[in-house]
Amino acid sequence: MTYDILLSEADIAARIDAMAREMAPRLTEDTVGVCLLTGGIWFAADLTRALARHGLGIGFDSMWLSSYGDGRQSGEMILRADLQRPVKGKQVLIMDDVLDTGASLKFARDHLLRAGATEVLTAVMASKPVTRQIEADYVGWEAPKRYLVGYGLDDGGRLRGLPFIGALD
Ligand SMILES: O=P(O)(O)OC[C@H]1O[C@H](OP(=O)(O)OP(=O)(O)O)[C@H](O)[C@@H]1O
Ligand code: HPA
C-alpha cells in the first residue's frame, strides 16, 4: 500500500502540545475527556498526556461509534458502547482523530448533552475542508480533502498504527 506522508510525528507532537496549552485554561480537573473509539484512541492518549504536562489531569471516558465500517463513505451511525460513568453536570471534552462530514461529532455532542453534560467542547486532530453542521472548538491540523490514514485513521481497519498522517488517494 502506498501513501503520501502529510504530517510527520514531530509535527503531530508540536500541534498537540499547542492545543493542550491553548485549551488548558478552559478546563478543570473535573472535566471529562471522551474519546471516540476507535480512531480517537491515539489522539486522546497524546492529548491527555500533553494536558497532564501542562498540569491538568482530566477524567477519561469513551464512546464507541462506528459509521464508516470498512468503507470510505459515512453510513449508518452505530453506538456500539456508551460511556462508563455519568456526565450529568460535567464539562466534557470530546476527542477524535478526524472531522469529516461531522456526523460522528454531532451525534456524540448531542448524545452527551442529552446525558446532562453542562458544556461539550470538541477537539480533533485533523479537520477536512467540508461544509457541515458542526465545527470543532480545537483543531490540530487543517487537512486536505483526501482519504487519510495513520494516527488512528484506518482503511478497512488497517494502517491506524502509522505514527504519522498520510493520504491514500
Ligand atoms: O465526520 P465524520 O464523517 O463522521 O467522520 C469522522 C469519523 O469517522 C471515523 O470513524 P469511523 O466511523 O470510521 O469509526 P472508527 O473510529 O472505528 O474508524 C473517525 O474516527 C471519526 O470518528
Ligand atoms: O479520511 C479519512 N480516513 C479514515 N477515516 C475517516 N473517517 C472519516 N474520514 C476519514
Automatic annotation (TrEMBL):
GO cellular component, one term: cytosol
Domain Phosphoribosyltransferase stretches: 15-133
Gene Ontology terms describing biological process: GMP salvage; guanine salvage; hypoxanthine metabolic process; IMP salvage
Keyword Glycosyltransferase tagged: yes
Regions annotated as coiled coil: none
Record field: catalytic activity: GMP + diphosphate = guanine + 5-phospho-alpha-D-ribose 1-diphosphate; IMP + diphosphate = hypoxanthine + 5-phospho-alpha-D-ribose 1-diphosphate
Keywords assigned by UniProt, alphabetized: Glycosyltransferase, Transferase
Top-level division of the source organism's lineage: Bacteria
Top EC class, one word: transferase
GO-annotated molecular function: guanine phosphoribosyltransferase activity; hypoxanthine phosphoribosyltransferase activity; magnesium ion binding
Documented EC number(s): 2.4.2.8
Protein name stated in the entry: Hypoxanthine phosphoribosyltransferase
Organism whose genome encodes this protein: Asticcacaulis excentricus (strain ATCC 15261 / DSM 4724 / KCTC 12464 / NCIMB 9791 / VKM B-1370 / CB 48)
Lineage: Bacteria, Pseudomonadati, Pseudomonadota, Alphaproteobacteria, Caulobacterales
